[in-house]
Amino acid sequence: MASNSSENGSHPKKPKLNHQQINEQTLISPSEIAAEFSHHDPTIARINNGSFGCCPSAVIAAQRRWQLLFLRQPDLFYFSLLRPGIDSSRRLLLPLINASRLDEISLVDNATTATAVVLQYVSRAFSERRFSPGDAAVMLHYAYGSVKKSVHAYVTRAGGHVIEVPLPFPVFDSGEIVREFRNALNLAKLENRRVRLAVIDHITSMPCVVLPVKELVKICREESVDQVFVDGAHAIGCLKIDMEEIGADFYTSNLHKWFFCPPSVAFLYCRKKERKEQEEGVEYDDVHHPVVSHEYGNGLPVESAWIGTRDYSSQLVVPEVLEFVSRFEGGIEGIMKRNHDKVIEIGEMLAKAWGTQLGCSPEMCASMVMVGLPTCLGIQSDDNVMKLRTHFREKFGVEVPIYFRPPKDGEIGCVTGYARISHQIYNTVDDYYKFRDAVNQLVQDGFTCAELYG
Question: Where does the sequence pass through the membrane (predicted)?
Answer without folding.
Answer: none
